[in-house]
Amino acid sequence: MSPTPIDYNYGPRSVAVGDFNNDTCLDMTVANHIVNIIAIYLGHMDMDATFSNEKEYTTGTGSTQYMVAIGDFNNDDLLDIAVANSGTNNVGIFLGFGNGSFKTQIELSTGSARSIAISLANFNKDTSLDIATVDYGTHSISIFYGYGTDYFSTPSRYSTGYDSFPSALAIGDFNSDHYLDLAISNYGTNNIGDFNKDHRLDTIAVNNDAGAIDILLGYFEDFSSPLVYSISSGSLYIAVNDFNNDTKLDLSAVNERSSDVNILLEYGNGSFSDEIMYSTGSWPQSLAVGDFNNDTRIDQVVVNMDSDYVSILLGYGNDSFENQTRYSTGSSPYSVAASDFNKDKRVDLVITNAGDNSISIMLGYGNGPFQNPIRYSTGSSPKSVIVGDFNNDTQLDFVVVHAGSNDGNVFLGYGNGSFESPIKFPTDSYQSSVAVGDFNNDNRLDIVVTNLVGKAVSILLGYGNDLFENEIAYSTVSSSYSVVVSDINEDHRLDIVVANPENDNISIFLQDTNRILENEMSFSSSDTGGGTF
């Protein structure tokens, strides 16, 4: 017999199944984010697998539930319900009576976490069920320890790393020590790293003219003199990751003049090996890293401006890579970002094409190859691209800034690999780089843009609905070419690092207690020469 669907128009986002009225028939609960309710459907014992009419329980105005889970929280052998209410920053608990009905919601505050996923387990072996939440807004996971009643502990929070945007978690004993562990899936990335294992963030500058990489080791609010490592001439862009699976952060740099990419392996004390070179196309400009063939090894994609294609280098996990595989792009590709735009657990690419004012979306198959590019028009000479969720719908979007027009574009994602028409926002002319972060702690992504001609770095605060405030500009000592965002001095406020090619230095802007950027601090590098982070 064909199943009879339940017609539903209230934005169902998550479903869980259990026996709520102890009749041995499975029932279900559905989280409905449009009308802010959970619905209960009681199952009937018949051959048609039918359900009763729904019973509704409110989760609160604006709660925007993302996930629902079932368990016995108060040890009465009756099933209860937990809901992740992202919009109101709480976990809703509905205690069951055992007859298919539930008490009014009890709220557990998550602060400003915007929790979007929830799982249940007994983490501390005390016979009471605990709750784990994935906190998209604060880049963390939280554990609420249960007391076996309707009370829970205040959340214990664990960071997943700045700009990680955690989206899902799994629970299991992964190391066979009889303790439950967590595995978290993150949308985001973080390119500044701790290279000498002293728990302080360090900074990298790429020196185009000198053919070198500078490592500046962090000392709370200061940096060491640069440690200089020679690489091929014309180094323009750098990425950070663990390329040989030794848990140490390595470097990869593209070199436009020698048309190759260099790998420098890290020893764990802030020092690096000699370069290992791999050929690319002509005049490579940028790169991104990710696992393109789902073998748990880091791969690379390099954008080749004069060849009009990208090079995919699949990693073996031992610091070596396969020869490049080429995929055509638009004219004069310049920048690339890697993420999962259609939620199929496969890495996709977005590429800016400066020569024909477009971007290309290349969806990944998950085994190394990519689909043919889908093109979208942009402003004049798109320069830099970065991925984030700019309208707080948990679908990945991206921002493009332009070297040839006084604006940027926001492309909002549908979550299926396609995007809305671009939304413009005004900026100064000749933007060279863009980064994102939440500078005012409102759980909305903001944008940082460097202005090469105007000698400034600008912040555009986001409203969380795809719109941004007018830019706030901060002067730099020279032309600003590249920017990254991180918490340099570990005060839980985002800071800005800018590469200045004219003066051969990098600039640090720290946020004060009022979340205003302090005066620029400059640190010399050997010869920045137009390089990027």
From TrEMBL:
| Pfam families on file | FG-GAP (PF01839), FG-GAP_3 (PF13517)
Q: What is this protein called?
A: VCBS repeat-containing protein
InterPro entries membership: FG-GAP, Integrin_alpha_N
| Gene3D superfamilies, per the entry | 2.30.30.100, Integrin alpha, N-terminal
Q: Which regions form coiled coils? A: none
State the source organism's domain of life. Answer: Eukaryota
Transport keyword on record: no
Q: Which UniProt keywords apply?
A: Signal
